Automatic annotation (TrEMBL):
Family classification: Belongs to the FAD-dependent oxidoreductase family.
Keyword Flavoprotein: yes
Keyword field contains Aminoacyl-tRNA synthetase: no
The organism of origin for this protein: Celeribacter persicus
Gene3D superfamilies: FAD/NAD(P)-binding domain
Name the record gives this protein: 3-phenylpropionate/trans-cinnamate dioxygenase ferredoxin reductase subunit
Pfam families, per the entry: Pyr_redox_2
Lineage, highest ranks first: Bacteria, Pseudomonadati, Pseudomonadota, Alphaproteobacteria, Rhodobacterales
Keywords: Dioxygenase, FAD, Flavoprotein, Oxidoreductase
Stretches assigned to the FAD/NAD(P)-binding domain: 7-294
Length: 378
């Protein structure tokens, strides 16, 4: 039935989840995963959670042996440059053409880097394991670093770099760190934790100039300049739609999909953080959640092989700053207040909309988090 098999672009959670679940559902045809990276199926969140603070290595979430046993071919360090929708084939950077019956785009996201950093050396992002290794190499001669962006990644990176003994300055354009992800009460607690660890915070502030000076970078903010040995940009991410746009697949902020994860070409699916659902779909877009990416890959395999449409997913997130464990689930709405749990040993709060529990956040209160997550899933 599928002589040319399934071809997947991207070897992170969503793409690998699709491949393994297709096998679990009984698909026996060829499955090939292409990725530009040398490293395959590794735990991306561990780059900021373990690699930067030096508390551990970045583990794989599915071993190469498991993929090999499932008869899934992985071609690493291989770029896909074009999609031929008429003849159903992809073109690789080598010029090789690979036919497919169905193509799955699991292209993830790309780091957002403000234009003022264009062309400057000493500026780093943290999207891949290679990015993390490049940053660590630079830290051998660095003592002072600026982190741009106070979302989850920026907060974790600032904390981790501080644990390595560096002087860290964190700039966040919004009035507070994690202001779009958690309530003001939890945001304040997190900022207090960072300050206590020695991270210098500049909320409501973003550099407006940047220039190289010797081996460092000078950032300017409202006329005041500061010199750093390196700059780590954690200013957000956008869905990687490059290949889809080149192939004239309908895209807005992300690759548009229906409830069966189909793009404008029904022989091409999209999963993970690169997707943007159409109006009648189930998922919210670009959640940057491991659980969300894994579940979309799994459900896309079910949609293709069993004709089962998407079901709602409750994305989950966690972060650890030393002994403080932060957990979140669902979708936080800045326009709606949260209901704090009065007897929490740390901090816990929920948020409901239209009578339905939609979000929970917890700091050192796993019991409240688990209970709320269970209620959200039912």
């Amino acid at each position: 039935m599928y002589s040319d098999g399934f071809v997947i672009v991207g070897a992170s959670y969503a793409g690998v989840s699709f491949a393994l679940h297709a096998r679990k559902l009984g698909y026996t045809g060829p499955i090939t995963i292409f990725t530009e990276e040398a490293n395959v199926a590794y735990d991306v969140p561990s780059i900021s959670k373990k690699l930067l603070p030096g508390t551990g290595d970045v583990p794989v979430f599915k071993s190469p042996i498991l993929l090999e046993k499932a008869d899934i071919t992985v071609r690493a360090q291989t770029s896909v440059t074009a999609i031929d929708r008429v003849d159903r084939a992809i073109t690789l950077s080598t010029g090789e053409r690979v036919p497919f019956d169905y193509l799955v785009l699991a292209t993830g996201t790309k780091a957002v880097v403000p234009p003022l950093f264009d062309g400057l050396s000493g500026v780093y992002v943290l999207k891949t394991l290679e990015d993390g290794e490049r940053l660590l190499a630079a830290l051998d001669v660095a003592t002072r670093i600026a982190v741009i962006g106070g979302g989850v990644l920026g907060v974790e990176a600032a904390y981790g770099l501080r644990q390595r003994g560096l002087e860290v300055v964190l700039y966040e354009r919004a009035p507070a760190c994690l202001g779009r992800q958690v309530s003001p009460g939890l945001s304040t607690r997190i900022e207090d934790k960072l300050s206590a660890e020695g991270v210098v915070l500049y909320p409501g502030t973003s550099p407006d100039t940047a220039r190289t000076e010797g081996n460092g970078i000078v950032l300017g903010t409202m006329g005041v300049e500061s010199r750093f040995d390196a700059v780590l940009v954690c200013a957000g991410a956008r869905p990687n739609t490059d290949l889809a746009l080149q192939s004239r697949l309908p895209s807005a902020q992300g690759i548009l999909i229906d409830r069966w994860f189909r793009t404008g070409d029904h022989h091409i699916l999209a999963v993970g953080d690169c997707i943007e659902p159409e109006e009648d779909s189930t998922f919210e877009m670009n959640c940057l959640s491991v659980q969300h990416a894994t579940e979309t890959g799994k459900q896309a395999a079910e949609a293709l092989i069993r004709d089962i449409p998407a079901r709602p997913v409750v994305p989950t997130f966690w972060s650890a700053l030393g002994e403080d464990m932060i957990k979140m689930a669902g979708y936080y709405d800045q326009r709606t207040s949260v209901d704090p749990a009065p007897d929490s040993p740390g901090h816990a709060a929920t948020q409901s909309r239209d009578g339905t529990l939609r979000f929970v956040e917890a700091l050192n209160d796993n019991m409240a988090y688990v209970k709320a997550l269970k209620d959200m899933k039912t």
